[in-house]
């Protein structure tokens, strides 16, 4: 079973247990935060709970979190690989050295594609 810890609760049968806190979509990739502590996921350190999934290949790449900040309106995550700024509905991911900027839309858990479920479950196992 795959559990999502987001605004809307969803479950899918047949996939290893994990939890997602945030899920974003851009034109080229998905970006998500796993709750590695909730289900004791050993593959990820506390600094690698954010994953980027390439849309064309479903390759999963962990992002290395260095710092996070939040206000009532906006949240920020600083990674070795780039910078993420987001609110309840959208965000922007800026690659390291400002090499590219990506507009993001926050997606409800019930709309996460099956290919993403499978890619994350495979990565976690």
> Separation of termini?
13 Å
Side-by-side strand order of the widest sheet = 6-5-4-3-11-10-9-8-7
User: How large is the share of residues in beta strands?
Assistant: 35-45%
* Major sheet characteristics: 9 strands, antiparallel
**Total strand segments:** 11
Number of domains: 1
Radius of gyration: 14 Å
Helix content estimate = under 10%
- What is the number of helical segments per DSSP (H or I, 4+ residues)? 1
What overall form do the CA principal axes indicate? globular
Query: Whole-number average pLDDT?
Result: 80
State the secondary-structure class: mainly beta
Order of helix and strand elements from N to C terminus: EEEEEEEEEEEH
**Unreliable stretches covering 5 or more consecutive residues:** 1-18
